[in-house]
């Protein structure tokens, strides 16, 4: 076990370097992110290899590959860095009434469109000097059923690019904590007067032309998965990269779209939309405020999470 004198000689920057190289999987990209030279990254890794008595990363024709030891260190190193950041952030007591801190909140744009106005109005009244950055988060395509679609978003929380994320997530690694805000289900949205609203059957749903929100223009979503299991299919005539765009196109077309109920309820009057239930049953998604356990040691982040819970878990 290291004694105090040995521990004092360890440079925490080496752990930051390790964390970023592991995330990027490339020395050059890690150097750009840390604003260092590739040579400095290589020298830092060499020091860390000697300290940990492990090669940590192996060079291959496609880049560097982490060793088993490096992969085992991923979680504890990320937790240590988050803890250090949390400790430093608490050096100045947090008072929302006087604080001039800036927080970054990430979420899918449907969640942002459903919550941002209420949140910003509340912060403007109770924490007038606090600034907010909103970041659009989207899930990654799952190559295997075991893949976590929100894994990249969770990594952005760990690196404190995002302070709190509002995600439709049921499970998360133990180093994170999630606070339930509300349950979100989907409805079929369309312009007012659309004939589908008068005869909302599964057959007429499949016969209609559809709009799908897809950041990568992939015309396949959860609706298509459900219909496929039922031996049916639909035509996705248009994909758009955001829910805000979806509302505009629905208002001026005969397209249908499966959209979050809360989003449609909030913006239906503005865009002249109406909605009916999906032609099949689907379990609602829990929208949760997610951050790391270490970040919750930061009184400012804890205040933000508490504010989100108080605003939205009561049905606002």
For this entry, give a set of tags.
single chain; 316 residues; alpha/beta; Arc Repressor Mutant, subunit A; D-Maltodextrin-Binding Protein, domain 2; 3 domains; five-stranded mixed sheet; three-stranded antiparallel sheet; 12 helices; 12 strands; globular
Provide an overview of this structure.
43% of the residues lie in helices and 22% in strands. With 316 residues, it is of the alpha/beta class. It has 3 domains: 4-66, Winged helix-like DNA-binding domain superfamily/Winged helix DNA-binding domain (Arc Repressor Mutant, subunit A, Orthogonal Bundle), CATH 1.10.10; 102-178 and 287-312, D-Maltodextrin-Binding Protein, domain 2; 186-277, Periplasmic binding protein-like II (D-Maltodextrin-Binding Protein, domain 2). The strands form 4 sheets. A 5-stranded mixed sheet has the order 4-3-5-12-6. It is globular, with a radius of gyration of 23 Å.
């Amino acid at each position: 076990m290291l004694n105090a004198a040995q521990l004092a000689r360890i440079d925490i920057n080496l752990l930051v370097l390790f964390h970023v190289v592991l995330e990027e999987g490339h020395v050059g990209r890690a150097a750009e992110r840390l604003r260092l030279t590739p040579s400095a990254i290589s020298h830092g890794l060499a020091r860390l290899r000697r300290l940990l008595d492990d090669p940590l990363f192996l060079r291959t024709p496609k880049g560097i590959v982490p060793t088993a030891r490096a992969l085992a260190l991923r979680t504890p190193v990320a937790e240590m860095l988050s803890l250090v950041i949390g400790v430093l952030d608490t050096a100045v007591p947090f008072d929302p009434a006087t604080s001039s801190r800036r927080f970054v909140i990430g979420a899918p744009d449907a969640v942002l469109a459903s919550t941002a106005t209420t949140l910003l109005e509340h912060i403007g009244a109770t924490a007038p000097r606090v600034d907010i950055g909103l970041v659009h988060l989207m899930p990654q395509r799952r190559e295997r059923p075991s893949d976590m679609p929100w894994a990249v978003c969770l990594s952005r929380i760990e690196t404190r690019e995002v302070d709190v994320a509002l995600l439709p997530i049921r499970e998360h690694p133990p180093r994170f904590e999630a606070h339930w805000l509300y349950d979100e289900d989907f409805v079929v949205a369309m312009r007012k007067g659309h004939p589908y609203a008068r005869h909302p059957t599964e057959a007429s749903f499949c016969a209609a032309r559809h709009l799908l929100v897809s950041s990568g223009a992939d015309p396949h979503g959860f609706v298509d998965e459900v219909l496929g299991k039922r031996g049916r299919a639909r035509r996705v005539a248009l994909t758009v990269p955001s829910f805000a765009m979806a509302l505009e196109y629905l208002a001026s077309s005969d397209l249908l779209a499966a959209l979050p109920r809360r989003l449609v309820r909030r913006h239906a009057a503005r865009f002249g939309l109406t909605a009916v239930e999906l032609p099949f049953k689907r379990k609602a998604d829990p929208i949760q405020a997610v951050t790391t356990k270490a970040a919750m040691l930061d009184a400012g982040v804890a205040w933000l999470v508490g504010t989100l819970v108080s605003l939205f878990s009561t049905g606002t």
